[in-house]
Here is the input.
Amino acid sequence: MSLYIAHPLDDSLESINLYTIVNGEESVNSICNISEIGLLNQDDQLVFLIPSSLITSYIFIQNKNISSHINKANFISEIDSKIVDQVSENEYLFHADNAFVINKKTLATINTSLSPISASIFVVPEYCINHEEATDTITQIGSKYLFSYSDGSGFGLNEDFLDQYLDIVFNDRPDFYPKVSCSNKDLSKRFEISSELPSFSFSKLAQSDLSKLPNFFKLKISADLLIKKLNFSKGQILACAISIIILVSAPNFLIYKNESNTKIYSNATFDIFKTINKDTKRVISPKSQIDQLLKGIPDNPSKTIKLPNLQIFYKLGSKYLTQSSIDLNNSSATVSIKSMPEFQYRLIQSASAQFGVSIANEDVDFKNGFVSGDIDLRFDNE
Here is the structure.
């Protein structure tokens, strides 16, 4: 496992010192932006230090008897007059007895840039890097001096403004006597330190519990991030895309299919009702309407209807029979024949009476010993 510390040198985050600690050995490289940090292993740790000029810290003890939203509202109310930009433009973050304010877009840019990196990520205010409980510290990193106070707040500035800032601190706290880690001899004189001051090394972090630091990293999910994290091939991406399309479109298709089937059912139901009762205009409640129609049927049993016996046609010439229809109201039937041998037709003519039917009309043609046409039959239905 390796530890990486990304320390931006300015507010633009485009000039970064990247410290690497492997087996206690520390090295540093300069990169131009976060994307140049490169590929890290999942077991690695990356600490990104937010420049002090981008984040402000305050002492704020949350009331455990009220909700986090009310605590946040109370904090904003306390510092409202100290904030330069709009309240809605900032993120308000809490850790232990401290609150931190940072621009939303700035934090989002940092988190979005760090999200593709496969490592344990910590986004921390730079002045927290050498914080010691109940102790004030001044830590020099390059040309920058980080002030970490015992109450959890802090600040950072370049060497050019060090004396001016110390004057402000001493004016507010005359007894200010921090633990100093730097190579600046002027600081030794200012705090009357006779011994040589120790220098700070990030290798100290490799032996500390980073989870105790305030961590403002939040993974930003995107399609590109998922592809990179899951290491999908083009085929797998295509398969996922098709699956998503199916999942999204399937409910719409089922709804369309159900609506289509419902329409077919409604039309078929209406046709049935129209056949039963030609006065039917629409079908709203099929069961109720069919019950109403049944009530209109008289209780007296209807007379027995006798169907005509057309067996003679099926026995003597079924293969020549093309169509047949029965009119029960008029006790008649129509039979269509085609290319029936004349002798079979004559046989049907003579034998029809034996089957209870009589030929009422013949619209047939005789040609070359074959008969084709329509035959109207009458049958007794008294």
In short: The first helix runs from residue 68 to 79. The chain has nine helices and 16 strands. The chain has four domains: 3-130+200-230, 132-198, 234-295, 311-379.
